[in-house]
């Protein structure tokens, strides 16, 4: 496989870009549309590997999912036949679809990419059993497994340790209104990561008219009921904005990400704070979010527990900073597309950064950075880390840049175009 020679700007980047839709919003919107009481449209969806896998899973179950002028039209239909679901490497498919498969009258077989068999799902499967869903996982608590749907799910109260992934909780809540007794989820264990993603789930359920009580910490109760069909307009993916904004911060350029929402449940919104802390100038206005790199890029001491998926891009910036950084609270990202703490320690270290790996984070000290191959472990966000470093350090070769298609098809073309000043308009202008 040919490596991607990460481009370096020859003059300060000064561009505005329009980014594809959010993976997390698109996959929730698709699933909720399939559970709703009539047809609806998911507008400006992300079309990428993860979202195509979700559309494929719902289609396999029996839902009609059609592309109409670039949008997804979803027409709910009864789920009566046996189905196979390919989860690929999409956590949202492996966690969100099994609870709803219990509503099917068929048997639904789940598998995915080789690494997907290592990603955590056992606690959620145990919760499904407690809610009355039958499945067969050969006692592994991991893929491959088969859900034996019976057309209805009793539901009720369930206790789960969701410290490995917030997606366990989101999955149970998304399906819960369709269970006979709804669902009352109580978390017991170390803190649940990525809480903004659970807030996103709760907010979207409410848009469908579902009654959700999240007034107590570590407890979420969804009342049984009908999901009203509503159209969703998908916001740009703010987590995928990370490398583009980091480019400005790291190279002293200026990048505007258009259509940045004023209010959002996406955890990527925290980039505004993180980049400002590191020394960049950050402005949110009607044109979008504009980040301007200054002459300084400082290390940070930050708990990333709520925003774990941003760790690779932030770690890459830390490797370019002028002082040490301590990134904490992200033990759970060892269960992401790859063990991200191990992968970052190895790859940043391989380019000369001084990195210490801890159980739940990384200490990153300024080092004498040099070029080399940056391995990506089938992880889109490792590729983002690689191109950020390559924008500053001569001779960085990013392995398997195509892995970015998990959430951003055409990433390399957009990145090259931006670095070379060929895509989008000047920073601070509104993009279509
Ligand atoms: O619900 C979601 O859409 C997501 C939740 C988070 O998962 P974890 O809680 O497993 O980190 C996040 O990292 C992932 O990219 C998307
Ligand atoms: C953790 C991630 O993905 P997934 O939805 O597969 O868990 C991610 O995109 O950073």
UniProtKB/TrEMBL annotation:
<comment type="subunit">
    <text>Monomer.</text>
</comment>
<dbReference type="InterPro" id="IPR023193">
    <property type="entry name" value="EPSP_synthase_CS"/>
</dbReference>
<dbReference type="GO" id="GO:0009423">
    <property type="term" value="P:chorismate biosynthetic process"/>
</dbReference>
<feature type="binding site">
    <location>
        <position position="340"/>
    </location>
    <ligand>
        <name>phosphoenolpyruvate</name>
    </ligand>
</feature>
<dbReference type="InterPro" id="IPR001986">
    <property type="entry name" value="Enolpyruvate_Tfrase_dom"/>
</dbReference>
<feature type="binding site">
    <location>
        <position position="167"/>
    </location>
    <ligand>
        <name>phosphoenolpyruvate</name>
    </ligand>
</feature>
<feature type="binding site">
    <location>
        <position position="28"/>
    </location>
    <ligand>
        <name>3-phosphoshikimate</name>
    </ligand>
</feature>
<feature type="binding site">
    <location>
        <position position="23"/>
    </location>
    <ligand>
        <name>phosphoenolpyruvate</name>
    </ligand>
</feature>
<keyword id="KW-0028">Amino-acid biosynthesis</keyword>
<protein>
    <recommendedName>
        <fullName>3-phosphoshikimate 1-carboxyvinyltransferase</fullName>
        <ecNumber>2.5.1.19</ecNumber>
    </recommendedName>
</protein>
<keyword id="KW-0963">Cytoplasm</keyword>
<feature type="binding site">
    <location>
        <position position="165"/>
    </location>
    <ligand>
        <name>3-phosphoshikimate</name>
    </ligand>
</feature>
<feature type="binding site">
    <location>
        <position position="194"/>
    </location>
    <ligand>
        <name>3-phosphoshikimate</name>
    </ligand>
</feature>
<feature type="region of interest" description="Disordered">
    <location>
        <begin position="1"/>
        <end position="20"/>
    </location>
</feature>
<dbReference type="InterPro" id="IPR036968">
    <property type="entry name" value="Enolpyruvate_Tfrase_sf"/>
</dbReference>
<feature type="active site" description="Proton acceptor">
    <location>
        <position position="309"/>
    </location>
</feature>
<feature type="domain" description="Enolpyruvate transferase">
    <location>
        <begin position="8"/>
        <end position="413"/>
    </location>
</feature>
<comment type="function">
    <text>Catalyzes the transfer of the enolpyruvyl moiety of phosphoenolpyruvate (PEP) to the 5-hydroxyl of shikimate-3-phosphate (S3P) to produce enolpyruvyl shikimate-3-phosphate and inorganic phosphate.</text>
</comment>
<dbReference type="GO" id="GO:0009073">
    <property type="term" value="P:aromatic amino acid family biosynthetic process"/>
</dbReference>
<feature type="binding site">
    <location>
        <position position="91"/>
    </location>
    <ligand>
        <name>phosphoenolpyruvate</name>
    </ligand>
</feature>
<comment type="similarity">
    <text>Belongs to the EPSP synthase family.</text>
</comment>
<dbReference type="Pfam" id="PF00275">
    <property type="entry name" value="EPSP_synthase"/>
</dbReference>
<feature type="binding site">
    <location>
        <position position="336"/>
    </location>
    <ligand>
        <name>3-phosphoshikimate</name>
    </ligand>
</feature>
<feature type="binding site">
    <location>
        <position position="119"/>
    </location>
    <ligand>
        <name>phosphoenolpyruvate</name>
    </ligand>
</feature>
<dbReference type="InterPro" id="IPR013792">
    <property type="entry name" value="RNA3'P_cycl/enolpyr_Trfase_a/b"/>
</dbReference>
<feature type="binding site">
    <location>
        <position position="23"/>
    </location>
    <ligand>
        <name>3-phosphoshikimate</name>
    </ligand>
</feature>
<dbReference type="GO" id="GO:0003866">
    <property type="term" value="F:3-phosphoshikimate 1-carboxyvinyltransferase activity"/>
</dbReference>
<dbReference type="InterPro" id="IPR006264">
    <property type="entry name" value="EPSP_synthase"/>
</dbReference>
<feature type="binding site">
    <location>
        <position position="381"/>
    </location>
    <ligand>
        <name>phosphoenolpyruvate</name>
    </ligand>
</feature>
<feature type="binding site">
    <location>
        <position position="24"/>
    </location>
    <ligand>
        <name>3-phosphoshikimate</name>
    </ligand>
</feature>
<dbReference type="GO" id="GO:0008652">
    <property type="term" value="P:amino acid biosynthetic process"/>
</dbReference>
<comment type="pathway">
    <text>Metabolic intermediate biosynthesis; chorismate biosynthesis; chorismate from D-erythrose 4-phosphate and phosphoenolpyruvate: step 6/7.</text>
</comment>
<feature type="binding site">
    <location>
        <position position="309"/>
    </location>
    <ligand>
        <name>3-phosphoshikimate</name>
    </ligand>
</feature>
<keyword id="KW-0808">Transferase</keyword>
<feature type="binding site">
    <location>
        <position position="406"/>
    </location>
    <ligand>
        <name>phosphoenolpyruvate</name>
    </ligand>
</feature>
<keyword id="KW-0057">Aromatic amino acid biosynthesis</keyword>
<dbReference type="GO" id="GO:0005737">
    <property type="term" value="C:cytoplasm"/>
</dbReference>
<feature type="binding site">
    <location>
        <position position="166"/>
    </location>
    <ligand>
        <name>3-phosphoshikimate</name>
    </ligand>
</feature>
<feature type="binding site">
    <location>
        <position position="167"/>
    </location>
    <ligand>
        <name>3-phosphoshikimate</name>
    </ligand>
</feature>
């Amino acid at each position: 496989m040919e490596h991607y020679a990460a481009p370096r700007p020859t003059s300060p980047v000064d561009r505005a870009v329009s980014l594809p839709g959010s993976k997390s919003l698109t996959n929730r919107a698709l699933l909720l549309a399939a559970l709703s009481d009539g047809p609806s449209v998911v507008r400006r969806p992300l079309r990428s590997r993860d979202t195509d896998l979700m559309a494929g899973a719902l289609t396999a179950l029996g839902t009609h999912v059609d592309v109409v002028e670039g949008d997804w039209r979803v027409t709910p239909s009864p789920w009566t036949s046996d189905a196979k679901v390919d989860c690929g490497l999409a956590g949202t498919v492996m966690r969100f679809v099994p609870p709803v498969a219990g509503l099917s009258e068929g048997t639904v077989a789940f598998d995915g990419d080789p690494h997907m068999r290592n990603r955590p799902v056992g606690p959620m499967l145990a919760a499904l059993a407690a809610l009355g869903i039958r499945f067969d996982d050969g006692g592994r608590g991991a893929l491959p497994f088969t859900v034996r749907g019976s057309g209805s799910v009793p539901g009720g109260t369930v206790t789960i340790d969701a410290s490995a992934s917030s997606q366990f909780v989101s999955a149970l809540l998304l399906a819960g209104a369709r269970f006979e007794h709804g669902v009352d989820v109580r978390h017991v264990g170390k803190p649940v990561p990525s809480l903004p993603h659970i807030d996103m789930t709760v907010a979207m359920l409410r848009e469908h008219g579902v009654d959700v009580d999240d007034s107590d910490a570590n407890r979420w109760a969804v009342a049984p009921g009908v999901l009203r069909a509503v159209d969703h307009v998908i916001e740009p993916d703010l987590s995928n904005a990370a490398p583009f904004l980091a480019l400005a911060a790291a190279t002293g350029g200026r990048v505007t990400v258009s259509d940045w929402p004023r209010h959002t449940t996406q955890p990527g919104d925290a980039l505004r704070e993180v980049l400002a802390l590191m020394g960049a100038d950050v402005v949110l206005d009607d044109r979008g979010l504009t980040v301007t790199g200054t002459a300084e890029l400082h290390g940070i001491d930050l708990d990333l527990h709520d925003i774990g998926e941003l760790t690779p891009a932030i770690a890459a910036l830390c490797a370019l900073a002028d002082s040490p950084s301590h990134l904490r609270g992200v033990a759970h990202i060892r269960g992401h597309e790859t063990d991200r703490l191990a992968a970052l320690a190895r790859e940043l270290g391989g380019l000369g950064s001084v990195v210490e790996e801890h159980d739940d984070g990384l200490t990153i000290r300024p080092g004498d950075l040099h070029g080399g191959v940056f391995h990506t472990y089938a992880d889109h966000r490792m590729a983002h880390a690689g191109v950020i470093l390559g924008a500053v350090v001569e001779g960085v070769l990013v392995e398997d840049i195509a892995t970015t298609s998990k959430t951003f098809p055409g990433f390399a073309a957009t990145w090259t175009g931006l670095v070379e000043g060929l895509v989008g308009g000047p920073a601070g202008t509104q993009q279509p």
